Amino acid sequence: MSILIKNIKKLVQVEDEPKPLVKGKEMAELQSIDDAWLFIIEDKIADFGTMVSLDKAHLQSNDEKPEVIDATGRMVFPSFVDSHTHLVYPASREIEYVDKIKGLSYEEIARRGGGILNTARRMKEISEEELYRSAMQRLKEIMAYGTGAVEIKSGYGLSTESELKMLRVIKQLKQNSPLTIKANFLGAHAVPSEYKGRQTEYVDLVVNEMLPRVAEEGLADFVDVFCDKGFFTVMDTERILEAGQKYGLRGKIHANELACSGGIQTGVKYNALSVDHLEYTGDEEIGALLNSETMPTILPGAAFFLGMVYAPARKMIDAGLPVAMASDFNPGSAPSGNMQFVLSMSSIAYRLLPEEGVNATTINTAYAMGLSKELGSIARGKKANVFITKAIPTLEFMPYAFGSNKVETVILNGLVTDPEKF
Ligand code: NIG
Ligand code: FE
Questions:
Q1: Superfamily (CATH H level) for 80-368
Q2: What is the pTM of this model?
Q3: 203 C-alpha vs ligand 1 centroid, how far in Å?
């Protein structure tokens, strides 16, 4: 199977020599080709160039004839990579959201047994089949918005059985969805009500019982901790990251969403692949991240939905750091997995240039999932996960026209994919 997309108005984010991530000033660089073609063989990007070079190009594949798509007036982007979601959940929480409108904070709602604990209660009741069905529906939705890879966390189970149930659902999604999926074990998302006042004992359970079971069944690619005020401490986090290392699970942690929690420094100390949220990031945190291998990841949807301060993305980039941006799709703080909206927010709320926003939502999030060799840009040999836009005037239109779906055709694993048909 091969596909030739021709007459592409702009082929965005092409790389001749793929980089693992982009940081600092490089974030404003985005190589693109006007009036381009893209050739896909099987599930890989085979070649690309300008239309004037098409006649001379040797489009060799085993097929007699590739499927030809004429993209006149349309652009082609690498699919978005969403490196932080909690999209396996039993039910939405719009009633709590009304409490929020009335003035309760995220922490107050959590203290009253709402929030994550509310979802954890319902997780116990729901069947694995129903959990799978509703999550698959969400995957279809994000596919239609241009996402090609997604990380999904557990963390609404908070008991060994329920955590395993969530992770088994994620495993099934990995097997049956055309999206590239990574699983992240977030046993330490909140202290369950049965362990109220006994947080250390709950961390014991995570470390001594849950993690070994998760590792034994090969259910997780990463380990996560909600390291923040009112949730897990630096010491809890260190214990869990150390235990994760024994099982070969790298950390990707929630840090500094509610306060200067020390989470960023802890993540760096344990060589976490990413630290996420980062609303409370000062000079010390930026200093710790510089010269680390940890990707600072900002979640605009959560900050927007909860009415929080925005992480200092501009300052971080100007200091030379890379920045990634993901959706945080979850029922409590970000009930949307639309990465086009995240791209718009990168400009509207964080003052990133369109080029920086595209890098933040593709190559840098691919790095934050350990996938930047395979995804996150248009490069020869990378996986053919791309989308063709509707007819749009400019690249800048993508972040600017917030709220509408600008994606027309989704290509995943080298196949034109109708999100509704999975
Ligand atoms: O990333 N901050 C912690 N966890 C989630 C929220 C989960 C929830 O409220 O259900 C987040 O925002
Ligand atoms: Fe999260």
A1: Metal-dependent hydrolases (3.20.20.140)
A2: 0.97
A3: 18
